[in-house]
Amino acid sequence: MSFLLDSNILIDFLAGHDPARRCVTNAEGAAISMITWIEVIVGAANPAEEALIRSFLAAFDVLAVDTAVAEEAVALADVGREGGWSRCPRPTGREPRGGRAAPK
User: Fold this and answer.
1) Distance (Å, rounded) from C-alpha 104 to C-alpha 96?
2) How many helices (H) and strands (E) does the chain have?
3) What is the reported pLDDT for 45?
4) Cβ–Cβ < 8 Å for 26, 91
5) What stretch of H or E contains 25?
6) DSSP secondary structure letter of residue 104
7) Which uninterrupted H or E stretch holds 33?
8) Domain 3-77 - what CATH class?
9) What is the rounded distance in angstroms from the CA atom of residue 16 to the CA atom of residue 10?
10) Phi, psi of 28 (to 5 degrees)
11) At 2, is the secondary structure helix, strand, or coil?
12) Are 31 and 61 in contact (CB under 8 A)?
């Protein structure tokens, strides 16, 4: 695992928010916690949407929640308070999607 994604990033990704899309798209090898898996699936509006979300989440390794995972999730929750998407992986060798510089 190179990166742990929290539910707020995945929910924003599914809602089509560009910063979250850049973050998830560039987070190769990312994992999620079991808590994140639950939180994202619970947000499904109907069974068809739940099936799509389950398919999307299947691409990630799902980690049991231990102290290390819990601490990383807390740190990720602070992303919005500490400068936006600065902890998200940056694209390598290319400009972020949308032709704009990523927020700093």
Assistant:
1) 13
2) 5, 3
3) 94
4) yes
5) helix 18-25
6) -
7) strand 30-33
8) alpha beta
9) 10
10) -60, 140
11) coil
12) yes
Q: The tokens of 88 are what?
A: 């998200």
3-5: strand order across its sheet: 3-5, 30-33, 61-63
Q: What is the pLDDT along the chain (104 residues), one digit of tens a residue?
A: 578 898 999 999 999 999 999 889 888 889 999 999 999 999 999 999 999 999 999 999 999 888 887 787 777 766 655 555 555 666 555 444 443 333 43
- In whole angstroms, what is the distance from residue 93 CA to residue 14 CA? 26
- How far apart CA 30 and CA 11 sit, in angstroms, is 15
Tokens of 24: 């998830």
Residue 102 DSSP class: P
